[in-house]
Design brief:
Blueprint (H helix, E strand, L loop, with lengths): L2 E7 L13 H10 L4 E7 L5 H8 L4 E9 L5 E5 L3 H13 L8 H4 L3 E3 L5 E4 L12 H10 L3 E4 L9 H4 L12 E2 L5 H7 L5 E2 L16 E2 L4 H9 L4
Parallel strand pairs: 1-2, 2-3, 8-9
Antiparallel strand pairs: 1-10, 3-4, 4-7, 5-6
Helix pairs in contact: 1-2
């Protein structure tokens, strides 16, 4: 059984996300592309996760997630077993934000939407800033909520654990590593002892992944997904 996925998708809540990245547009594009599983991972917030999950009912499976920017400015993907757990993590992150206000004319609007794609609010705090929790604290808080922890795009030259820290700390407990498609060959060999996922980091509808990456069911994350989401 192959389940095609894209576990790194931003909605219009992320300031860098296009305003067309509404709950229904995300779900429908993923379905059109033949995906079976998506992850919603806005920057430092889960405020649009519930809307996407409601829009996806009967169409596609959704993993609630957040892309957290740690104190070291490392991007990390945090996935949760329920929308409640993701929203609880979001509330924790809010308490540790720098409280710098967004400037929509520069960074873009940060739109909170319902499952019918209606705008119900705007996030005032700039979500792309680092929060006041280090990478170990973010990992711990993710695990506390039953989630799994994945350093994002580790092959990139900015905002990755390898670029900002210079290495992947051996004592950092990770469930997998995300590697971009362009770095997959080199970095999957370099980190062959880790489970690897590859997603789009889509900020525009057309960037959502084509059905080429699929879950194999032989790693921590994939087993957890298959058992919890697909009940197999």
């Amino acid at each position: 059984m192959k389940i095609y996925y894209d576990l790194h998708i931003h909605s219009a809540l992320s300031p860098c996300g296009d305003e067309d990245m509404t709950p229904n547009n995300i779900v429908n594009m993923a379905c059109l592309k033949g995906l079976g599983l998506i992850g919603v991972t806005d920057h430092n917030s889960a405020k649009n996760v519930r809307a996407v999950m409601e829009a996806a009912q009967g169409k596609i499976k959704v993993i609630p997630g957040i892309e957290v920017t740690t104190r070291e400015e490392v991007h990390t993907l945090c996935y949760f077993p329920s929308v409640d757990a993701a929203e609880d993590m979001g509330e924790l992150l809010r308490k540790h934000m720098q409280n710098i206000k967004n400037r929509p004319e520069i960074f873009g609007r940060q739109l909170v939407m319902n499952s019918e794609d209606r705008i119900i609010g705007e996030e005032e705090n700039l979500l792309i800033n680092a929060i006041n929790l280090d990478i170990y604290e973010v990992q711990k808080e993710t695990k506390k909520r039953g989630g799994f922890f994945v350093p994002a795009h580790v092959d990139r030259q900015s905002y990755s654990v390898t670029s900002n820290l210079g290495f992947l700390p051996p004592d950092l407990e990770v469930d997998a590593l995300e590697i971009t498609e362009s770095g997959l060959l080199e970095y999957s060999l370099k980190y062959k002892e880790y489970e690897i996922i590859t997603s789009s980091d889509a900020h525009y509808l057309e960037n959502i992944s084509e059905p080429q990456n699929f879950l194999k069911g032989d790693g921590k994350i994939t087993k957890k997904i298959l058992e919890n989401l697909y009940k197999i």
